[in-house]
Structure formats: structure tokens, C-alpha cells
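Annex B, item 7. Sequence and C-alpha cells for protein A, then protein B.
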Amino acid sequence: MNQLLSCEVRIGACHLDPEQVSKIEKVLKEFLSLKQPFLRPGYTLRQMADELRIPLHHLSAFINQRHGMRFNDFINEYRVNHFKDMIINEEWRLKKLEAIAEESGFNNRNTFTAAFKKLTGQYPSEYIRNIRSNFPA
């Protein structure tokens, strides 16, 4: 995979052409869907780059250029979506908020709450209240 990319380096940035972006997008989507590495607390860009066999700076440039965010926000978006799926699947009825956040890959409640608010515009408790009001027991 590391032969996929050639970088044009300008002011320390890696610029990927559309074909490179398309190839990485496909590999990354499949990897995230099948392996769900975002569920591992503390998962890093380096770990992902190593597992995908993509140079670190290429993967970082891809996430920045294609998704318009840094790696932690990118991974947290997957974690928040996993959390939301668990809530919709009624797992919130059986587990505490902290437990679901941990199962979604977050290290602690504060990190989870901050990421959730940043990505959705609301706190997890607000989101759960809305789900409960829309889908009563």
C-alpha cells in the first residue's frame, strides 16, 4: 500500500491527488467497518498507519484533506456514531452511560462528553432524553 502514494511536499504538507484519495478512502472504510479499531481506547494514528501499511504523514494528510479534521476528531466521530447505534439498539436500557462510552472506545466520561458535544451539538444525556421521548419503553 505504501507505494500508492507520492507526496508533493509544500511547507511541510503532503498533498494527495484524487486517485490517491480514492484508494485510501476505500481501504480505510473497509478497515474501519470490519476491524472497528476505534473501539480500542487510546488508538493512535501511528497504529492505524502501521495496520494499513500507509506512511503516517500520508494517512494524516488524507484525514485532514478528505475529512477536514484531525485524527482524534476523526476517530471520535466513529466512536460517537457507535455510541448512538448502541443507544438506538436499546442497549442504554441495560447499561450506564459510562459503560457504553467505554465500549465505544473512549478512555473516560469527560473525553466522551466533550467529543459528543463537539460532534453533535448536544450532551449525551440530552441525546438520550430525546431518544427516550421518541421511542418510549
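Protein B:
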Amino acid sequence: MNARQAEKARTRQRYLAEAARLFSEKGFHAVSIDALGAAVGVSGPALYRHFASKEAMLAEILLSTSERLLAGMEELCNESGVSDADTLARLIAFHLDFALASREVIRLQDRELATLPAEINRQVRQLQRRYLDGWAELVSRVQQMPIEESRVLMHAVFGILNSTAHNADLAPGDITRNVLSAAAQAAIGVPASPSTGENFTPQPGPHYR
């Protein structure tokens, strides 16, 4: 990637970050293209040099986030010499990195997934199902429970981890991380592992904030 391409990529990410913030705060339909442009210091129509429409921005935020979460999970699951229990503990740390940095995206997912065109909505849901199933398969092996039960459990665990979208004002980030990590580990039934240390840093995707 040359310097011009790198700058264009950074500009796109800045636009998407502001779009995620505004869409999550005000609702997708309440945000005009002019308001999006004003948030990044350009005219509304200038955004069309980077995105086909406001809908395309929403689609890119939600689809790319799901893609990168899945890729990050698969990277961790494919590491050799790591036990299933340790992999789950690492996945908790991985998902919390995302959940703490990308509260706007979680709120946006909750509120606006149905706004996506049907085909993009289907793609996002498929990616999310694969992400959940990857966790559920590990839980099923570690706890020796039926996969149907571990899927139900994982929906509850993601509710814990994604609660960051609604608790930003309750405690500093390190306290929130520690509390939610302990709660998720207890729900799954795996102990805290030294291999999840604070320096573990695979990135699940763009942090739209």
C-alpha cells in the first residue's frame, strides 16, 4: 500500500468511526449525510467519494466487524499447543478488547441490524453464527455438554461481554474488564489462565470510536 492508499484508508476509517458514533447515538434514519460530513469536517456529498451511500457505511461497519471478529477467533483456535480451556480464556480477553473499544458498534448492531439490506443482513448473521459456534464447540468439549446447550450458554456469555455498550459510566475500563472477564469465565466454567495476560493483543477489527 502506497502513501496515498494508506491515507485514503485512514480517511475511510475516520468517516466510519464518526458514522458508528452518530448512528448509535441518534439512530440510523435520524442522521443525514450532511450531519455525517459535518462530523468529519467535510460537506455531506464529499462522503460519496468514499461510500456509495449512508446505507453502505452501515453495511461496512457491521459486516467488517463480524468478519474480523471471526478471523480473530479462528486465529486463536488454530494456535498449536494451547488447551481448549486456555483458548477460551484467551477468547474472553480477545472479545473484551473489542467490547471495551467498540461500544458504539455493539449498540449499532443491537439497534440497526434490521436496517441492513436483506443480503447483507444474512451475511452478518451467518458470520455471527460461525463466531458463536466456534466458542460453543470449545465449551462443549471443555464442559462435556451437548452443543445445543453450549450455544444457549454462549448467547448468555456474549450478553455479559457486550454489556460494555451500556455500562461505560459505571466504572473505569480496567475494573469493567476484570469484572466481566471473571463473570464470563464463571459462566463458561473455565479458570483464569496465565496465558491470557494483559499483553495478549490480537485485534478483532477496526475500533470505531
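Comment on protein B: The helical segments are 3-26, 33-39, 54-77, 84-101, 103-112, 118-143, 147-161, 173-188.
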